[in-house]
Design brief:
mainly beta, 22-stranded antiparallel barrel, 4 helices, 3% helix, globular, cell outer membrane, signal
Length: 794
C-alpha cells in the first residue's frame, strides 16, 4: 500500500468542513500609535482556532462555519474581546488596539518583541532584558533573510564572539563561543556527543538561542563558553502552510514544505509536517551532497492548563569530499586555486543519518506554578570512506634519486564509521511566591542522560593509486581495483572497541531569585549537583565516577523599565570522555565565569542592545595527541578567556531592521605541562569579530514589500588550528560582503542574495609545525555565490 496516499487524507480530513465555508474573519492589530503589531496571536473561541498577525498586523480566519464566536488577542495590553454571530458566507472585520506598548512582568513594565522573549525550553519565563546573562535569539525571519540553510552556514555571524569552525560541515558543525567549543542543545536538552549530532537543517528549526557562559542554572554538563539551543518547529495552533523552492550556485536545488493542520473538530489535536529535499555541489571538485528531512510533530491540548507534544525527525545526508577538501601547499596559504581537492569521482559518498524523537508535557498548576517534563532520543550514525593526503608524504623539492617531483603526494583511505546515541530526560518546575515585601521566583529540576559512542576511523596502510601532484592534479584515473575492500563483517562495537565509550549523568538544580523594591532589584542564588559515570577503553574499562556542586550567584538592577545592569558568577562541571596517552581516562573539566553587563531596549522595545564584560577559566583542556597517537588525547592545565561583547538586534522603524555585533576575545592557554603551549591562542578564536546585517523594506506605496539587504562578516587576528606559537595569527583577515533584494506581496515572496560579493579568497588553516606537519594546510570557504528563493504561504 502507498503510505502517502493513506497518510495525507487522514491529516487533511478534519479541515474539510471549514474549507467548504466561504465565511471569513479579518482585521488588524495595532498599537496606540496605529502602527501594526506582527507575530501577535489572535484566538477564536478560546483556542478553537488561532492565527498570528503578519508584518502589517493583519490577521485572517478563512472558511469559518456559521455560529457564535468570541475573538481575543493573546496580549496583556489588549484585554478587550469581541463577541459576534457569523452567518453563512458572511465576512466580519474587527481591529484591536494595544493600549500601551509594554510587556508586563510582575510589577515592572518592560518592552519586548520576539527577539527578547526566549523559548520555554530555556526555562526562564522572563524577558531577556531582565535575565542576568548574555543570551541572543536568532528568529526565523533573520534565518530566511540570510537564506541560511543549515547550522554550518554562517549562523554564528548573528552573535558576538561566536565562530563557525569549517571542518566536516556536510555531516556535523563546530561552533566556538568565547574560544571554547559550544555545546549543542535541542529543545533545551544537551545532545552533544563525541560524534554528532548531525548538523541541523533549517527546515525543522524555528529559532536558535545562543547562551554565553556556563549557564549551569539552566543546563548542566555544558561547555564554559556557552551553548546554542536549537528550537524545533512544532504545532502552534494555527492552520497554515508554506512551500519554498531554492536555486543557487554550485548546482543547488532545494525544496521545502511546512504544513500545519487541526486534526480534531474541537481544536485540541494539531499536526505539523515539515519536508525537505536538497542536492548541491561545491566550488571544489568532486564535493557534493544530497539530503532529505522528514519531520512530523503533534500537539494535544488536553485542557487550558495541560498540553502534550510529540515530535520525530529523520535526517539523512549523503556527501562526498570528507578530508579530501583540505588543501596542502609548500610556499604558503592560498597557493592553489580554491577548486582544488584530493578527492576523485570514483569515491562513493559517505552516508550519515539521524533519528530524533522528542516528547514534552506542560502543566500549569495555577497562575504561579508550572511543571514541564520532556525526553529526547537521538541516534546519529555515519558509514563511509574518505580519500585523503597521507601525513607528511608531500615532496618539498624535486628528488632525482626517487624520481619524485615537488608537490607529489601519496593518497590513502580512512574509514568513516561512527555511532552516537543519546537518551535524555528532564523534569523542571518554575514558580513564584512572596514573603512579606519580597517576591521569590523558583527554578528547580532534574536532568538525566545516557550517551554512547563508538567509531572506526581506521586508516588503511597502502597507497591509493599513482602519486598525485598538487601542482598538476589528475582526476578520474582511479579504479575500484585501486581501492581496497574493507571488512565490515565485524560489528562496529567490535571494530571500534578502542573508541567505545558509555557515559551517563544525573543532575539536580535549584535557584531562588529574590526580588526587592517592587522587583527592581533582583538577587539570585542557586546550585547544581551533578553525578557522572563512564566506561571506556581507558583505565582498562573500569567504571569512573565523578561528582560536583557548581554554584551560581547573580544580581540585576532595573534602573528604568528599559535599562538594566547585572553581575554574574557561574561555574560549570563537564565530564570528558577520551583516552589519554598514558592509557588513563580524561579528567572532568571545570569552568568559572565572572560577568557584568548592561542591557537596553529602544524604540518601544523593538531594538535591544547588550554590552558584556567577562572573565572565564577552564581547567583540564582536552586536545588531540596528534598524528602519531591516533584516537588519543592530551590534557592541558588551564586556559583563560576574557573579553568584551556588544550586540544590537531589532527594528528601528517599520522600514529598517538592523543587527550589529562586535567582540574582543583574548583566549589562551595559561598553564600546561608543555611550556611551549603556554600563551597559545585557543582554537576557534579571533581577537576581533564584527558582523552586521541591515534590511530596508518599503512599507507603503506601489513598491510596498520591496526590500534591500546588506551585511558583512569580519574577523581579524585569527588563530590557526592547531596553533603554532611562532605564528599566532593567520596572515589574512576574514571578510565577506553580502547583498540581497526581496519582494513580498500577498502570499508570495521572492528573495535573491549574493554572498561574498567581492569574491575574496577566505580560508582557515594551519602553519608548518602544527602537529609536526612539514607544509601549510587550509580549507577555503565559498567564493562569490548566489541563492534565489521563491516562497508561497497559504
Amino acid at each position: 500500500m502507498n503510505k502517502n496516499r493513506f497518510l495525507f487524507p487522514v491529516l487533511l480530513f478534519p479541515t474539510i468542513m471549514w474549507a467548504q465555508s466561504t465565511s471569513q474573519i479579518t482585521g488588524k492589530v495595532v498599537n496606540s500609535q496605529k502602527e501594526p503589531l506582527s507575530e501577535v496571536k489572535v484566538i477564536l473561541n478560546n483556542g478553537e482556532a488561532e492565527v498570528y498577525t503578519d508584518d502589517n498586523g493583519f490577521y485572517q480566519f478563512k472558511g469559518v462555519p456559521a455560529g457564535n464566536y468570541i475573538l481575543k488577542v493573546d496580549d496583556p495590553d489588549i484585554k478587550k474581546t469581541y463577541s459576534f454571530t457569523l452567518k453563512e458566507n458572511d465576512s466580519i472585520a474587527y481591529d484591536f488596539v494595544q493600549i500601551s506598548n509594554t510587556y508586563q512582568i510582575v510589577a515592572v513594565n518592560v518592552t519586548a518583541n520576539r527577539k527578547t522573549i526566549p523559548s520555554s525550553t530555556l526555562r526562564l519565563g522572563e524577558n531577556l532584558l531582565v535575565t542576568p546573562q548574555n543570551i541572543q535569539v536568532i528568529d526565523q525571519r533573520l534565518l530566511s533573510d540570510q537564506q541560511i540553510l543549515t547550522t554550518a552556514e554562517g549562523l554564528s555571524r548573528n552573535v558576538s564572539g561566536v565562530r563557525t569552525i569549517t571542518h566536516q560541515e556536510e555531516g556535523s558543525v563546530g561552533i566556538a563561543v568565547r574560544g571554547f567549543s559550544a555545546s549543542n542543545l535541542r529543545n533545551g536538552m544537551d545532545v552533544s556527543g563525541s560524534f554528532g549530532p548531525l548538523r541541523e537543517d533549517m527546515s525543522f528549526v524555528d529559532r536558535v538561542e545562543f547562551v554565553k557562559g556556563p549557564a549551569g542554572f539552566m543546563m548542566g554538563n555544558t561547555q564554559p563558553g556557552g551553548f546554542y539551543n536549537i528550537v524545533t518547529k512544532k504545532p502552534v495552533g494555527r492552520e497554515k502552510g508554506n512551500v519554498q523552492l531554492t536555486l543557487g550556485s554550485f548546482n543547488l536545488y532545494r525544496a521545502t514544505a511546512d504544513v500545519e493542520k487541526k486534526l480534531s473538530k474541537d481544536g485540541k489535536f494539531w499536526g505539523r509536517l515539515n519536508l525537505m529535499g536538497t542536492k548541491s555541489g561545491s566550488f571544489q571538485q568532486y564535493v557534493e551532497h544530497e539530503q532529505y528531512v522528514i519531520n512530523p510533530s503533534f500537539k494535544y491540548v488536553a485542557s487550558e492548563n495541560t498540553n502534550v507534544t510529540l515530535e520525530y525527525i529523520l535526517s539523512q545526508n549523503n556527501f562526498q569530499g570528507g578530508f579530501a577538501k583540505y588543501v596542502y601547499g609548500i610556499d604558503g596559504f592560498k597557493e592553489l586555486k580554491r577548486s582544488f581537492t584530493f578527492s576523485d569521482p570514483i569515491i562513493d559518498p559517505t552516508r550519515s543519518w539521524e533519528h530524533n524523537v522528542y516528547g514534552t508535557i506542560n502543566h500549569n498548576f495555577n497562575d504561579n506554578w508550572l511543571i514541564t517534563g520532556q525526553f529526547g532520543y537521538i541516534r546519529s550514525q555515519m558509514q563511509g570512506e574518505s580519500l585523503y593526503a597521507k601525513y607528511n608524504s608531500i615532496t618539498l623539492a624535486d628528488n632525482p634519486v626517487t624520481g619524485r617531483k615537488r608537490g607529489d603526494v601519496d593518497r590513502g583511505i580512512s574509514i568513516n564509521d561512527a555511532l552516537n546515541t543519546s537518551m535524555i530526560g528532564q523534569v523542571f518546575t518554575r514558580g513564584k511566591f512572596s514573603t512579606g515585601n519580597i517576591n521569590h521566583n523558583i527554578l528547580a529540576g532534574i536532568d538525566m542522560g545516557k550517551k554512547s559512542y563508538v567509531a572506526d576511523w581506521s586508516v588503511l596502510p597502502q597507497n591509493i593509486g599513482p602519486v598525485f601532484n598538487i601542482y598538476n592534479p589528475v582526476y578520474g584515473h582511479l579504479r575500484k581495483s585501486d581501492i581496497p575492500e574493507y571488512d565490515r563483517s565485524k560489528s562496529l562495537r567490535e571494530r571500534g572497541a578502542n573508541y567505545l565509550t558509555d557515559y551517563s549523568y544525573t543532575s539536580f538544580h535549584l535557584q531562588d531569585e529574590a526580588r526587592f523594591l517592587e522587583d527592581k532589584l533582583r538577587v539570585a542564588a542557586g546550585f547544581r549537583y551533578t553525578s557522572t559515570s563512564k566506561t571506556s577503553a581507558a583505565d582498562k574499562g573500569a567504571e569512573i565516577k565523578n561528582t560536583a556542586v557548581t554554584p551560581r550567584v547573580s544580581i540585576t538592577g532595573l534602573l528604568t523599565p528599559t535599562f538594566t545592569v547585572y553581575g554574574l558568577y557561574d561555574e560549570t562541571f563537564q565530564e570528558q570522555t577520551g583516552k589519554l596517552i598514558n592509557g588513563s581516562s580524561a579528567d572532568p573539566s571545570f569552568g568559572k565565569n565572572t560577568e557584568v553587563g548592561v542591557k537596553k531596549t529602544w524604540f518601544n522595545g523593538q531594538l535591544m542592545t547588550n554590552l558584556t564584560f567577562y572573565h572565564l577559566t577552564k581547567t583540564n583542556m582536552l586536545t588531540s595527541a596528534g598524528i602519531d597517537f591516533p584516537g588519543l588525547f592530551e590534557q592541558s592545565g588551564k586556559s583563560v578567556s576574557k573579553g568584551i561583547e556588544f550586540d544590537l538586534n531589532g527594528n528601528i522603524s517599520k522600514n529598517w531592521s538592523i543587527l550589529f555585533n562586535y567582540a574582543y576575545t583574548d583566549a589562551k592557554v595559561t598553564e600546561d605541562n608543555d611550556p611551549k603551549k603556554i600563551g597559545g591562542m585557543l582554537y576557534g578564536t579571533a581577537k576581533h569579530i564584527s558582523n552586521a546585517w541591515i534590511k530596508y523594506t518599503i512599507a507603503k506605496g506601489d513598491l510596498e514589500g520591496l526590500g534591500f539587504s546588506f551585511g558583512y562578516e569580519y574577523q581579524a587576528k585569527r588563530a590557526a588550528w592547531p596553533v603554532v606559537l611562532d605564528h599566532p595569527y593567520l596572515p589574512d583577515d576574514y571578510f565577506t560582503l553580502d547583498v540581497g533584494v526581496s519582494y513580498k506581496r500577498d502570499n508570495y515572496q521572492l528573495s535573491f542574495l549574493v554572498n561574498n560579493l567581492t569574491d575574496r579568497y577566505n580560508y582557515v588553516g594551519f602553519y608548518p609545525g602544527a602537529w609536526a606537519y612539514t607544509h601549510y594546510g587550509w580549507r577555503a570557504t565559498n567564493p562569490v555565490n548566489f541563492r534565489l528563493n521563491l516562497s508561497y504561504s497559504f
